[in-house]
Design brief:
single chain; alpha/beta; Rossmann fold; 6-stranded parallel sheet; 7 helices; NYN domain-containing protein
Length: 200
């Protein structure tokens, strides 16, 4: 018998409460989301796509956030997915469960993977490899493993936060978009608009 102090077998599992999950898809999509709309508009200001085939890879493990911010992030993912020719989304069970209510018609494509290093990354890379010929890739992640996609064509990186971005991925990107910075800008714009509405 062990004396304790070491890692528990339960440490390998990701825990989440059902109460933390967003509402069902029907209810989730029915309520307006000004923050998400502004954030989508800011992302659209970048030329994220040029030529086909356009491949969108989304690492849902890198997009974890509080419910309000998660909804806005998924709105961006949905907007970009509707412009892409090939879409792959993957993450651990909890990350996928939290994201699906906000993923509209792409919810079923979100693939839950077991815990482990780079498991979701490898699923996404396999999806890109299944597309023949040169591709243009938009990766929503901070992980350096995706830098190799630059060998296939233009690589746009939508980073959930530049402070965690891999140096390797930073160096490989043709275009880099800081999602966290855009979120701060979107929050300021929404606050300004709300404040202006109150003073009218």
């Amino acid at each position: 018998m062990g004396l304790g102090g070491g890692p528990s077998e339960w440490d390998e599992y990701e825990w989440f409460r059902l109460a933390d999950l967003p509402p069902a898809p029907e209810a989730a999509q029915a309520t307006p989301d000004p923050f998400g709309e502004v954030l989508c508009g800011l992302v659209q200001g970048y030329p994220v796509w040029a030529d086909a085939p356009r491949v969108l890879l989304v690492d849902l493990d890198n997009l974890r956030a509080a419910p309000g911010r998660l909804r806005a992030r998924m709105a961006v993912v949905v907007e970009l997915a509707r412009q892409a020719d090939h879409v792959a989304l993957a993450g651990q069970v909890g990350a996928v469960a939290r994201a699906r209510p906000w993923l509209a018609e792409f919810a079923a494509r979100a693939q839950a993977v077991p815990d482990g290093a780079d498991v979701a990354d490898l699923v996404l890379l396999a999806a890109a490899q299944a597309v023949e010929g040169p591709i243009e890739t938009l990766i929503v992640s901070n992980d350096g493993i995706f830098a190799e996609l630059a060998e296939r064509g233009d690589l746009t990186v939508l980073s959930p936060g530049m402070d965690a971005l891999s140096d390797r991925l930073y160096g490989a990107a043709s275009l880099l978009i800081d999602l966290a910075a855009l979120e701060r800008e979107a929050a300021a714009l929404v606050a300004e608009e709300t404040s202006g509405a109150r003073t009218r």
